[in-house]
Q: What sequence folds into this?
């Protein structure tokens, strides 16, 4: 009978950045191609062998991707200066806790959303949707409300969505 046990993974992996979206990924060096999980671009492994970092084992590959991805994140979206406080069922950023309640007790997130969009537009001329999602967490805006707020901002002309690269930008009428 065979002994069952753990075998250390000695497979070489290549950790590389996608040429299109710069998202880090890993691939076995014996594979021919690797498709980016974020943007869908197909990379030929032989073309990217010199551009990446080679590691041994899948665990090391995953950890290397996490390390590299954390190095390129935008620091102003995950700053340590904002302390998260818990209120009832929703955690909110301390500096952003402004509860605007209507007559029915529902929270009006439109003011927070406008502040958030203004902050993003001051930092960037164009920005992708995922930045709205990241900032909405910091502002305490639920994901369900965010979709409605984005739709309303597009209708009112506060945000313009580019059909070319799916980014948002400032309205031209200001």
A:
């Amino acid at each position: 009978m065979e002994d069952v046990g753990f075998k250390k993974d000695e497979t070489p992996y290549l950790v590389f950045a996608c040429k299109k979206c710069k998202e880090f990924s890993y691939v076995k060096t014996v594979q021919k191609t690797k498709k980016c999980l974020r943007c869908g671009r197909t990379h030929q492994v032989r073309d990217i062998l010199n551009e990446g970092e080679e590691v041994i084992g899948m665990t090391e590959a995953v950890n290397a991707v996490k390390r590299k991805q954390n190095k390129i994140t935008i620091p102003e979206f995950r700053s340590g200066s904002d302390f998260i406080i818990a209120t009832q069922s929703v955690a909110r950023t301390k500096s952003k806790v402004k509860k605007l309640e209507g007559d029915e007790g529902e929270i009006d997130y439109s003011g927070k959303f406008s502040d958030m969009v203004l902050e993003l537009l001051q930092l960037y001329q164009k920005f992708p949707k995922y930045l709205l999602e990241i900032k909405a967490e910091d502002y305490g805006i639920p994901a369900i409300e965010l979709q409605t707020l984005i739709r309303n901002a597009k209708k009112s002309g506060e945000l313009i969505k580019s059909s070319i690269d799916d980014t948002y930008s400032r309205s031209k009428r200001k």
